[in-house]
Amino acid sequence: MKNSRVSRRSFLRSAISAAAVSPLVVSASVLGRDGSVPPNEKIVSAFIGIGSRAQQVMGDFTYSRNKPFHIVAVCDCFKKPLEEGRVRVNQINGNEDCKTYAKYEDILARPDIDVVVITTPDHWHTKIAVEACKAGKDVFCEKPLTLTPLECRQIVAAARKYNRVCTSGSQRVMEDYGYMAPIVKSGALGEVKEAYLGVGGPPFDLYYPEVPIPEGDDWDRWLGPAPWVPYHPERCSGSYGGGWRNGWDYGNGFLADWGAHKLGGILYVLGIDAEEPVEILPPKCEKNDKEWLAWVYPNGTRIYHSGAHDITLVGSEQTFKHQQDRNRIKPLGPTDLRRYAPGAYRLAEDFAYCVYNRTRPFQDFVYGAATALGCQLANITYKLNRPLKWNAVTTSFDDDVADRFVRRPKRSPYIIKEI
After folding, report:
1. 403 Cβ neighbours under 8 A, 6+ residues apart
2. Which of 32, 37, 70, 129 qualifies as a FRET site for 199, CA 20 to 30 Å off?
3. CA 47/CA 53 separation, integer angstroms
4. Taking a C-beta distance cutoff of 8 angstroms, is the pair 229, 221 a contact?
5. What angle do CA 10, 11, 13 make, to 5 degrees?
6. Rounded to whole angstroms, how far apart are CA atoms 208 and 153?
7. Which of 298, 207, 293 is nearest to 255 (CA)?
């Protein structure tokens, strides 16, 4: 499946009907004779990209009840975090067996590894996830899931083509915001066609002077598919207040970083989390008299990127503010909603259940891609400062200039040649 074909298809709608409960069909592998992990066996896992977030996810994986994951390897192209990851895993396992790799391809080549956890900067997510699916691995990929709209198509296509269990990394969608879904679905707020979320802004171009590359660090590999620039430690820093998250070439800013949680949460709560906007309106334009950018969804719902309260839902009967109204407004009655797998209370537990049972996880790539794409479209609209219409079927805008941002040039040999 060539890139040009992937970019002109909507995998989100075609995949959604099977996303929640349909079993995956897989061939026999190291996981088990029927393609599943026997319940009494550990899910052999490896981490790719060992920064501060990887350390947190390791905690989630090892905190989960019944300890289903067994981490055996870590990978990073920088020497210091790689060693820190090795030490952390050995502390978790109580031995000295953790293997280290400078290249993720060596992890994908190991037949004993069932799951890869991708905690690299965002510009690497899709390339590694696609190759992991091809290698027969299940995938836990941190948020934001992708860097570009084209990558949203590619990452879902790979998960489906190779029948892998693939989850996006936002735990907050369910664990922080999921309680609002029964309130909305029960009709307690009336019809909700307007919502507000407070998250950060778009990324920008980074300019830093060249400094020497630390010995043992592979700077070219860290850049990977991104344009080549001289090394500077702040450019690749995992510092949450700055670093690579602010860079246009590596992420989609704090709009996407927290948007993966909050926009994803709103879309789930409103039951449109596999949908894509049909229009994105900049502040104070002809169709949007408000001072905030607006996403317009197919059913007419408008979500505003505001600096207002965390999440606010405006219903025809009453308004709900996240946490502030949690004890004031309750569901009117029982509701039927997509939730974590039976017995799972955390994202990692949901993922483990789905790996064992070959079912789609709560944060299946379909949902992570739809949320990431929404944030990407907002950033493109901010960049051009004009209203844009989005066609999910053709993966394109009504604007030739905006279409240039649907995909980004990739450096060889880090391109995705085919799915």
Report:
1. 396, 397
2. 129
3. 11
4. no
5. 80
6. 33
7. 293
Strand 69-75's sheet: what is its strand order? 99-101, 69-75, 43-48, 115-118, 138-141, 166-168
Ramachandran category for residue 271: left, alpha or beta (phi over 0 → left; psi -120 to 50 → alpha): left
Which residues lie below 8 Å from residue 241, measured CB to CB, with a gap of 6+? none
Q: Which residue has the tokens 């690299």?
A: 120
- Residue whose structure tokens are 């920088």: 78
C-alpha 352/C-alpha 284 separation (Å) is 46
Q: Where are the alpha helices (DSSP H) in 141-252?
A: 149-161, 172-175, 180-185, 219-223
Measuring CA to CA, which residue among 242, 267, 287, 291 is closest to residue 375? 267
Tell me the residue ranges of DSSP E strands in 66-222: 69-75, 99-101, 115-118, 138-141, 166-168, 192-198
Asked if residue 298 has pLDDT above 70, the reply is yes
Q: What's the gap between Cα 253 and its chain centre?
A: 14
3-state secondary structure of 45: strand
pLDDT at 36: 57
CA gap 27, 44 in Å, rounded: 18
What is the spatial distance between Cα 244 and Cα 203, in angstroms, rounded to a whole number? 9
pLDDT tens-digit readout, 28-53: 344 443 455 555 589 999 999 999 89
Report the C-alpha gap between 222 and 55 in whole angstroms.
18
pLDDT at 52: 86
- Strands (E) located in 178-285: 192-198, 279-281
- What's the rounded Cα separation, in Å, for the pair 339 and 332? 19
- Structure token pair of residue 92: 């978790």
Residue 118, beta-bridge partner list:
48, 141
pLDDT tens-digit readout, 331-359: 999 999 999 999 999 999 999 999 999 99
Residue 368 dihedral angles phi and psi, to the nearest 5°: -65, -35
Please compute, for residue 108, the number of CA atoms within 13 A of its CA located in the half-sphere on the CB side.
18
pLDDT at 37: 58
Band (19; pLDDT cuts 50, 70, 90): very low
Contacts of 58 (CB under 8 A, 6+ apart): 47, 71, 88, 89, 92
